[in-house]
From TrEMBL:
High-level lineage: Bacteria, Pseudomonadati, Pseudomonadota, Betaproteobacteria, Burkholderiales
Residue ranges constituting the Thioredoxin domain according to the UniProt record: 25-165
Organism of this sequence: Roseateles subflavus
Transmembrane regions listed in the UniProt entry: none
Protein name from the UniProt record: TlpA disulfide reductase family protein
Domain of life of the organism encoding this protein: Bacteria
Pfam family, one: Redoxin
Length: 167
């Protein structure tokens, strides 16, 4: 009888641990609190993202995939910006500031561009090292999707549509 009770207790404990593990898989991680300075000198932090769907793109001027995808990042921003969507391009700490500023100016990037001089923003977003890395954040400040490499922009647009439709 004791063995049967012990087995039942162990089974219940294993089931409880499994349920907790499953629930943690379902929880969506919050975007980290970050501060940054845009190329125009404006100081902002992630609290300004509240209630918006945000696309945070980590990139570098030396990254050919980043340069290739940037027109699509711009098109995505333009398509959704009137509906509560915003974009932040975060240049990696190793990217020369003059190159970043020149790139943003010559391509007339229509969204905020920050240089992550210290690497702190990349660290807080999970120690981003590969570019491009793009993070999509919902209106509640939760990370919904992380793309390493160029995203499938059709799928990205469909996901943005869903997030914008959520209350």
């Amino acid at each position: 009888m004791r063995r049967l009770v012990l087995s039942a207790v162990l089974a219940a404990a294993a089931l409880g641990a499994g349920v907790l593990g499953y629930q943690s898989l379902l929880s969506t991680p919050k975007a980290p609190a970050v501060s940054y300075v845009l190329l125009n000198g404006q100081k902002l932090d992630s609290s300004s993202w509240q209630g918006k769907v945000m696309l945070v793109n980590f990139w570098a001027t030396s990254c050919t995939t980043c340069v290739h995808e940037m027109p699509q990042i711009v098109a995505t921003h333009e398509k959704f910006k009137q509906r509560g969507f915003d974009t932040l391009a975060v240049a990696m700490s190793y990217d020369p500031p003059a190159y970043v500023a020149s790139f943003a100016e010559t391509r007339q990037l229509p969204f905020g561009v920050a240089i992550d001089n210290t690497g702190e923003v990349a660290r807080r977003f999970g120690d981003v090292r590969l570019t491009p890395t793009t993070v999509l954040i919902n209106k509640r400040g939760e990370i919904v999707k992380r793309f390493v490499g160029e995203p499938d922009f059709n799928a990205l647009h469909a996901l943005i549509e869903q997030l914008l439709a959520q209350g």
